[in-house]
Design goal:
With 205 residues, this protein is of the alpha+beta class. The protein has helices at 2-18, 57-73, 156-172; strands spanning 25-26, 29-35, 38-43, 46-53, 76-77, 100-101, 103-108, 111-117, 129-130, 135-140, 143-150, 182-185, 198-204. 25% of the residues lie in helices and 33% in strands. It has a 9-stranded antiparallel beta sheet, covered by helices on one side. It is globular, with a radius of gyration of 19 Å.
Amino acid sequence: MRSIKFLLYALLPILCSCSSEKNLEQTKYTILEKQGKFELRQYEPHIVAQTAVEGDFDEVGNVGFRRLFNYISGNNRSKQPIAMTAPVNQQVASEKIAMTAPVNQQKVEGKWLITFTMPSKYTMQTLPEPLDSNIELKEMPARKIAAVRYSGTWSRKQYEENKKQLEEFIKNKGLKMADADIFARYDPPFQLFFLRRNEVLIPVE
């Protein structure tokens, strides 16, 4: 048992590094201004898969993540052309979609929207259709976003503390918030908490 535990501890950093945000395609943006840990960014247009979940801040992420992960893992109807063969069988073809970063969480109209950005190679015409009716594909326009980055746990307390600091940064810059705040997570749950990249994002006018 001791040797197994040692092996797990030895492999954990490798597992974390292999699945970290550095190896994933990320939502594209340009940094317009940087001040300490705060940034003002210009995000490019992109497509997201999103699902609405009711519940508490600390619980909805897991529910939404599972739905979206199932979608990109094959719970979808592919639009890719497939060569004709014989015999003719009736089957829904599916397609695996690469994971991206970050996973976003935003409260809208009393529900939490959990969002995956779709890989940039897809368009609305080529993305596989979700088989889960709880998942919606949506085009996001270019927009300006204020951001603060922090590490640590995914607790609401830490999130709220950094959100408050970001709101103060926006106020001092003379900017106006254009939409609800967003919780962005770049790493998997097994990543060591002090190595995680977490962000609070707030769209601004």
